[in-house]
Amino acid sequence: MSVANGGSGESSTPNGVVKGESDQKSGNGKGPLAVELSSSKAPSGVPEKPQDDWQVAYTWAFLVKFGLRDKIKGLETPEDLERCLTQPVALRPDDVLEGILIRFLANLKPGIKQLRDDNIQSHLSSYISDQLQHSNEFTVWDDPWPQHEDQRGACCSTAPDRLEQGRLRPLGEDPKERVKRNPIKQMEEKGQGIFELDWQERAKLLRQLVDWQLTHAENIRQTIKEQHNMSKKAYDELKNPIKLEPLGTDRKKVRIWSLDGEFASGNPFKRPCPLVPYTFTRDELQAEQERFAAYGAEKAPKLIGSGPKGKPTKVELRDHNKLVKGIQDEAKLAEKLAGLAPNVEKEEARVQRVRKKIQQEAQNRALFEMRNQERSTRTRRSTQKVDYTYDGWDSEEDDEPRRSGRRGRGAADSEPESRRPVIPGERRSARVSARQAMEEDEYEEQPTRSPTPPPSPPKEAKPTTREVFPEGVKKVKGYAWVEDVDGGEGSDMGSQPNGDENHADSGVDGSKGEPIEID
């Protein structure tokens, strides 16, 4: 984006490009701008578009020069800055304006941590109110400097209100009344916020924040000191990366600005000095460079005066010198624009890469949110059908709860540990699991028995017989089973209370024996 000092006469071109068209004919047709740069005749109306406001160009130059553009996501071109000033909150495609305000306030108040879009308004309003109340500096919300000399009065005026004109604050002004000029507080009283300001107020706010950073921000001041170190022997002011320098002027003394790499300056010391946007695409830049080169290649005609013996008058000599200087200026300007073309190509390629990356990130974010939404609507039930048969045992056969060898488990945990579903994150002991598996295997080898019948009633005591051994024979000590003389009713095997199958508790004919003591 290039900016030139001049007047009105704009016409819209594609891609939001606005160019001035001159009605004054020159040697090659119409010139690039509309009005001669005469400070006494140039219009000083309120700009209707952000690209017509010099404060927007001023803010963009600050962002580029001090390396803040690359730290703000979505801010790549001056058009991005102009767009964020005009679009309302509901239609903003990104958070460019929020990012700019957060970055500016972080420079001014580095002690504030975690500046976000939900608290930037309160912190910024507090800082503006503090500056208005305790600082004597001129702000954009104070009475403006009069535009013309006749409004300001003579420099040696002794009028009592002379000190109250211009950039000085009115004498005796109440600081509390000055705080009321805070635009954010004014919007809060209406129930609105900072993003409901119109684009003119937003541009003024950004300009004031830039002024404060150039004056008070420590990191910005340190950068200025490093670049303006006058103690260096080989200091070159033209190579200062934060200095704004002109690309050149054309034959009508119009100074061209470039806000995307090289810079140019008009004549801002004359008032008023309106800015006319003069924006280029790559094709338009090439066309303007060829036009300047063609005019710069012309030769000035030989001066023939109208005075005696062909001697030129002072007026003719002055006009001829202007013509020669105009040709030289446009030749130099053509060289500068030719050197600017490769930078324009690199800048366009960089912007395309960054925007493509931002678009890809937005697509990935949308896909991630869509997947999260699908996952949140799904139940936690498993899609696999549950199999209730374990190890080939049918569930109908297991009517009774199984007995486990692990102590301390109730009826609810009667199922063997190896058949219980494993819960992720549950700790299991290999030693305990092996012992449980061994106990379960032993239990499975035992045949299934019928339920134990109730015990039989007690029988009458019967006399015991005593076996007598002859002398010399060793007696057998202990207990032995003898055959029951009269078999009772409860002589079946199922009458054993302990159900132990390893004892020889039955005879050949199935009768039950009784124990006798052998001495």
TrEMBL record:
GO terms for cellular component: nucleus. Residues 410-429, 459-474, 500-519 have a biased composition (Basic and acidic residues). It is found in: Nucleus. The keyword Iron-sulfur does not apply. Keywords: Nucleus. Transmembrane segments: none annotated. The keyword Nucleus applies. Residues 1-51, 365-519 are annotated as: Disordered. Residues 191-222 form the WHIM1 domain. This is WHIM1 domain-containing protein.
